[in-house]
Design a protein that fits this description.
about 290 residues, mainly alpha, 13 helices, about 60% helix
Length: about 290
């Protein structure tokens, strides 16, 4: 079985096919590798020139190794677009393996268009519900929450009336009336310094939708992605300094602050980047022009 340790030199597309076959993936061929390059799963090879003519382009050692990782993860996803989270996660967390130009194509592949982008919106809404929804929120409120966020993420414009409906839907799942109406209390999640209230959740939803629409419209370039990555890394660094304290004070919910596995980092990369990218877009629009 071919492993990462066996790959020590750059290689041509023929070498990539050989790598795949040596690892037991006999269905890989040059045409499929070209398709994966177009989708951002792999990067473009580096052109080589000789004194007379040119030689076949070469893929770096890291890209050859990335191919083996992609092949290993392929059986765990239902669609090829979901596999784009692998290079996205590598780009998001580790330098020197996936260039931004590849991450930009992988990002467009992961978000996709039509039914795919609607699926990403629904997945983000369901994930946010799981994160902030109160255990006593009704099934009707939960369904409405996911429906409204999915529609907004899929391109529905957010009008003044729509924003009010969104905030109402968020409050129904974050602060259900059966628990909070009589008391007059406001529920706040997370650390005391930056609590997540219903208003903050609604702002997160607007950010998610802004990122989806901008991506589908082709307005997310490499520079914007790099800014979002820098913000994400900085916020994670801050969180890691507080994680022990947060876990100690969380009681039965301490498991929420455990270190994610490598698999979870891959699975969450797209949604994490979607939120940070959306927040960056919202902040850019809010900044006064000079």
């Amino acid at each position: 079985m071919h492993t990462w340790q066996d790959i020590t030199e750059p290689g041509t597309i023929d070498d990539l096919v050989t790598d795949a076959h040596a690892s037991g993936y006999l269905d890989m061929n040059a045409r499929r590798i070209h398709d994966w390059i177009a989708k951002g799963l792999l990067d473009q090879p580096r052109l080589r020139t000789l004194r007379r003519g040119s030689a076949k382009a070469e893929h770096s050692v890291n890209q050859r190794r990335l191919l083996l990782l992609l092949l290993d993860k392929r059986c765990q996803v239902a669609h090829l677009s979901a596999l784009a989270q692998v290079p996205l996660a590598v780009w998001l967390w580790w330098d020197g393996y996936v260039p931004t130009r590849q991450a930009q194509r992988a990002w467009a592949t992961w978000v996709g268009r039509g039914r795919r982008s609607q699926g990403v919106a629904h997945e983000g809404a369901a994930g946010l519900l799981q994160q902030v929804g109160h255990q006593l929120a009704t099934p009707t409120a939960r369904t409405r929450f996911v429906r409204i966020i999915t529609e907004l993420g899929n391109g529905k414009p957010l009008t003044v009336r729509g924003r009010a409906e969104l905030l109402d839907a968020v409050r129904d799942v974050v602060e259900p009336d059966t628990v909070f109406a009589a008391s007059g209390l406001v529920r706040a999640l997370g650390p005391a310094q930056t609590p997540m209230t219903a208003d903050v959740v609604a702002a997160h939803v607007e950010a998610l939708c802004a990122a989806l629409r901008s991506t589908v419209d082709g307005k997310v370039d490499g520079a914007l992605l790099e800014r979002a990555r820098a913000v994400h890394r900085a916020s994670i660094a801050d969180y890691l300094t507080q994680r022990g304290e947060l876990a100690a004070g969380a009681g039965q919910l301490a498991g929420l602050f455990r270190e994610p596995t490598l698999q979870e980092q891959f699975d969450r990369a797209g949604q994490q980047l979607l939120l940070v990218l959306g927040m960056e877009l919202v902040h850019c629009r809010a900044r006064p022009r000079t």
